[in-house]
């Protein structure tokens, strides 16, 4: 599905680059409808050469004809960037923020009354088109705005809608989740090496096993419990492995990780709420 919008990225770093590549690569928007603004000239030149989009280091100039503005800057620079943007963004433009910990309320406070804001939480697999993004609407965001945001984020993976109060849980699960999976792959690699495999072979097998298991689950649309039971025969090797995982508290460890990350996201959101923008 293609959309007719002038989409301006304020901040042209990793996540913006992934989204722009996804949007153009999937034909969701033509390159001449995308503008990227960033202080880093080298980064801009690289994006301009690779993707043939328009680039500028002037945020206010970039957004003046925008119909969608994607705030893809780090949360720490919001306080510095928002005041200059609020007067420059056309009043009917949709604002989409991907910044962790910055609520739609904070953004709404910095823009004219009635501004439409959508908050998205993507994750790093978006860099390879396999992201998992959640989208939440602010006070004035319409259903069309959420649909548009979903279309944009689907260009780099899947996108789901959640109420904004669930964004902290999304952060704890899929936002931080790739790191938990990397930790598991590390452990599988080290375990394989301990059992006698060359480390590189163990790493390849571990990574492909995680990828393949996730792909199987998504393709077959079966519950993980069902797929797990299918490969677990009584007295077999998988049963022995799963018993060892259960004895070590595997499920509790994962639940603890998601809970800790979710709580930290809530704390960081509170700190952001108390910051002057
Ligand atoms: N990476 C993820 O997995 C992930 C997941 C979910 C959400 N996010 C959110 O996505 C946002 C961007 O993350 P990222 O990983 O893409 O960070 P990043 O690569 O550091 O990109 C941020 C970009 O903004 C630029 N910038 C700094 N000050 C600016 C200004 N005044 N005006 C315009 N641009 C400015 C930075 O330039 P300099 O480098 O020159 O400062 C950099 O190019 C963050 O808010 C983060 O919370 C990221």
What does the model show?
The protein is of the alpha/beta class. The chain is 53% helix and 13% strand. The two termini are 36 Å apart. The model has no long low-confidence stretch (mean pLDDT 96). It has an eight-stranded mixed sheet, sandwiched between helices. It folds into two domains: 7-166, NAD(P)-binding Rossmann-like Domain (Rossmann fold, 3-Layer(aba) Sandwich), CATH 3.40.50; 177-265, ProC C-terminal domain-like (ProC C-terminal domain-like fold, Orthogonal Bundle). NADP nicotinamide-adenine-dinucleotide phosphate binds at residues 10-16, 37-40, 43, 59, 72-75, 77, 80-81, 98-100, 121-124, 175.
Briefly say what this structure is.
Helices cover 53% and strands 13% of the residues. The chain is built from twelve helices and eight strands. The protein has an eight-stranded mixed β-sheet with strand order 3-2-1-4-5-6-7-8, with helices on both faces.
CATH superfamily of the largest domain: NAD(P)-binding Rossmann-like Domain
Helix count, DSSP H or I runs of 4 or more residues: 12
Q: Determine and state the CATH class of the largest domain.
A: Alpha Beta
DSSP strand tally: 8
Name the strands of the widest sheet in spatial order: 3-2-1-4-5-6-7-8
Q: Number of folding domains?
A: 2
Strand content: 5-15%
CATH architecture of the largest domain: 3-Layer(aba) Sandwich
Largest sheet: 8 strands, mixed
Q: Which residue ranges are poorly predicted, with pLDDT under 50 across at least 5 consecutive positions?
A: none
* Class inferred from helices and paired strands: alpha/beta
* Rounded Rg: 21 Å
Task: Report helical residue fraction.
Answer: 40-55%
One letter per element, helices H and strands E, the order comes to: EHEHEHEHEHEEHEHHHHHH
Each distinct ligand:
NADP nicotinamide-adenine-dinucleotide phosphate
pLDDT averaged over residues? 96
CA-CA gap between termini: 36 Å
Gross morphology is elongated
């Amino acid at each position: 599905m293609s959309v007719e919008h002038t989409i301006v990225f304020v901040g042209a770093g990793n996540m913006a680059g992934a989204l722009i590549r996804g949007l153009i690569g999937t034909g969701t928007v033509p390159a001449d409808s995308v503008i990227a603004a960033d202080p880093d000239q080298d980064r801009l030149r690289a994006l301009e050469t690779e993707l043939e989009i328009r680039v500028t280091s002037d945020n206010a100039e970039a957004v003046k004809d925008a119909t969608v503005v994607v705030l893809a800057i780090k949360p720490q620079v919001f306080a510095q960037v928002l005041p200059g943007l609020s007067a420059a963004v056309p009043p009917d433009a949709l604002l989409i923020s991907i910044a962790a910990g910055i609520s739609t309320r904070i953004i709404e406070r910095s823009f004219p009354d009635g501004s439409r804001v959508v908050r998205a939480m993507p994750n790093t697999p978006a860099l390879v088109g396999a992201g998992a993004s959640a989208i939440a609407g602010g006070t004035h965001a319409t259903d069309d705005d959420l649909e548009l945001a979903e279309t944009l984020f689907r260009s780099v993976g899947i996108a789901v809608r959640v109420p904004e109060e669930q964004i902290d849980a999304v952060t704890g699960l899929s936002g931080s989740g790739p790191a938990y999976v990397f930790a598991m792959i590390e452990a599988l690699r080290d375990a394989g090496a301990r059992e006698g495999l060359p480390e590189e072979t163990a790493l390849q097998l571990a990574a492909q096993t995680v990828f393949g298991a996730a792909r199987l689950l998504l393709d077959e649309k079966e519950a993980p419990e069902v797929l797990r039971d299918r490969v677990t025969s009584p007295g077999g090797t998988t049963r022995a492995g799963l018993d060892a995982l259960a004895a070590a508290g595997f499920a509790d460890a994962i639940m603890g990780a998601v809970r800790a990350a979710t709580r930290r996201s809530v704390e960081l959101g509170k700190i952001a709420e108390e910051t002057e923008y």
